[in-house]
Structure formats: C-alpha cells, structure tokens
Amino acid sequence: MPEEQPQPPPHSELASFGEELRREREIRGISLKEIADATKISKRFLEAIERNDHKTLPAPVFTRGFVREYAKYLGLNAEEMVNRYNYAAAGDDRIEKSAHLDRLVAPPPPPLKEKPRTPRGIPPPYARIDRNLVITFVIVALLVAISYWAVKHKRDSAAEAAREAATSTTPKEAPQKVAVAATTAPVAAPAPAPADDLLRLTIEMSDDSWVVLKADGKTVWNEDLVKGQTKTFEANEEFRFVTIGNAAGMSLKLNGVQVPPLGRKRQVVRDVVLDREFLQRQRAAEPQSNP
C-alpha cells in the first residue's frame, strides 16, 4: 500500500497560534497600534493575524514577514514563530508547495519558550516613551543650559575685566582722600557747620562699574552697579571705597554735597575715604566754586 501523506493540521491549530500571539502581546501591555507604528505593518493585518483571518491577509510569503516582525517586537523567537505559523497555516491552499512541504506538515515544534523578561514587560518601558516628548524635553534642557551659560559668561567677563584693570594699576597704593581744589587766595575760615547725625552717601551710575564699599568698616556693597542705578547708604563715621572698577562711571553726593569725580573712565580706584572731615572741607569749598 502506498505510504499515506501526512495531513495538514486542523484550523484549530492556526486559531491557537493567533490567540497565543495576542496573549503574549496583552501580557506585555502592548497595543496593536504601537506595533503597527514601530513595524510599519497595517493594524488591519495585525488584527487578521490574531484572528487567523487568512482572507484578509496577503500571500503567505508576506504574512510570514509580518509574523517575523510581530514576534521580534514582542521579544519572542522570530524564526520559531514563523515555523509555528507555517505549521498552523499548512491548511491554507495559498501556501506555496515546495520541497519544504515535509517540514511544513511535520509534527508541531515544542512549546514556545519565552525569553526572560523583567516584571515591567518586554520591550522595556523606555521603548514605549513618545519620541516627541523626549525631543521636546531635550530642546528645553538645551535652551536652559544655553541661557545659564550666557548669564554666567557675562558675569565672568565683567569680573575678569575688573581684575585685569586692577592689575594694570600700582599693586599697592596708600590710602588717599579726595583732594579739594586749592584756592589762590587765603580766605577766612567759615564757621563749622552743625554736625550731622548720620553720613548719607548717594551713588548715581552713569556707566557700569564693579564697586566694593564699606560703611564704618562693614562691607555694604560688593558687586556690579549698572548704568542708571541709584543707591543710598548710611554710616556714623565714614565710607571707604575699597575698589571702584570704573571711577568715572558714578556721581556721588555726601549729605547732599556733590563729591568731585574720583578718576577717569575705566580707571580703577582704591581706598577712597569719605568722612565728616571730608564733608566739612567740601562744604567750605562750595561758596568759592560759585562766586
């Protein structure tokens, strides 16, 4: 008697194949749309694979490619899944008849062995993050970093300019007081003005400058003063400018009395003292400046 040819498997095997793929997908919490977007396979074909709807699927040669990409995305053994599809779909009359028919109708392969996966599923969660959100986050982070760098660079440049200007002057200068213009003719000493309770220093900026100011030995300012800015400070005995980065960039008034310019533009001046004695000399000189 001629040897009987093996019979194609029943459609129930094909049905279990599609259900198995769907079950593996649902275990991992992955939607068909996510697989379709990643593999560029129509969602309609993916649904047909899970439903074993061979009338909707294209020729088996294409369907095998779909099964392979589907299995890869789920983290399954792609070739093993293709073999299971071939075996399960052997009853489809569109399957090509070839020398591999014996393999197609051979006993089913052993049960599918899943690759170890983390409790969060395969692929890992970061593989399902919206790329647009990632790109937006990267752009925002870059803008923040650039803004921070620009502000820091500006402050560092200003500080560096002040340090370079300071090194260009004499390293050590004796404390000096602002000289009062000498008169050509002797005049009678005016009556001393009543002592003020406090010394009040008003600074009006006509240009940017780095300023370090002490009032009665305590530092009250140690940073930039910018053009257009006005500051007022009080002291009991004296004010001492430890450093002025741009001597011509400020206008000073001590208790309402105009203080002569302390230096030239961009000149660094140090240890300038404004006290009660200086205030009295300035008040005494005021009438002579306006005869």
Would you kindly provide a written description of the structure presented here, covering whatever features stand out?
- The protein is of the alpha+beta class.
- The chain folds into 2 domains: 122 residues, lambda repressor-like DNA-binding domains (434 Repressor (Amino-terminal Domain)); 108 residues, no CATH class.
- Strands 1-9-6-3-4 form a 5-stranded mixed beta sheet. The chain has a 4-stranded antiparallel beta sheet with strand order 5-2-7-8.
- Helix 1 runs antiparallel to helix 5 and helix 4 packs across helix 5.
- The longest helix has 38 residues.
Number of strands: 9
**Strand arrangement, major sheet:** 1-9-6-3-4
**Beta-strand proportion:** 15-25%
Task: Count every helix, treating DSSP H or I runs of 4 or more residues as helices.
Answer: 8
What is the average per-residue confidence, as pLDDT, rounded to a whole number? 76
What is the percent of helical residues?
Answer: 25-40%
Write down the CATH topology of the largest domain: 434 Repressor (Amino-terminal Domain)
The first-level CATH class of the largest domain is given as Mainly Alpha
Structural class estimated from helices and strands? alpha+beta
Which spans of ≥5 residues are poorly predicted at pLDDT below 50? 1-12, 94-109, 178-183
Domain tally: 2
The SSE string, one letter per element, is HHHHHHHEEEEEEEEEH
CATH superfamily of the largest domain: lambda repressor-like DNA-binding domains
